[in-house]
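Give me the 3D structure for SPOR domain-containing protein.
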Amino acid sequence: MQKIMMLLVVTVLALQAMANGDTVIVRKDPRLDMLSAKQAQINKRSSMMTSSGLYKGFRVQVLSTQSRGEAFKMKTDLLTRFPEEKSYLIFQSPNFKVRIGNFIKRADAEKLKQQLAKLVGQNVYVVEDAIEYTPKEGEDIAG
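Predicted structure for SPOR domain-containing protein (143 residues):
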């Protein structure tokens, strides 16, 4: 019973405070909007980064083999055919993996995958990886 009475008193006091017609006018500095927009952009970028400072993105894996020589041969072949893309040789015991590209968007990696599938064969995959990437000023990478 006391709880109901207390709730009733609080409700009456709240209604009375609202009935007074008191208004609060908040005036904010317009620079706060610019600051919050910049902070939102920084937050988007940092959410796309790994703890090592690299970005989360995609690469195209062309080969996974136990033969070091075969892996180096494939990497050299990729460098000559695609000089604009960076290629990587990764050793994950017991395999050597050859990957190419630094893509933020999976669709871009898929385009390269289609080209590579025609040259190399069907065992070409788009894989998630930490990539080397430098965003341009004002570029929206989280999309």
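The beta strands are 55-65, 87-92, 95-103, 125-131. Let me know if you want a second pass.
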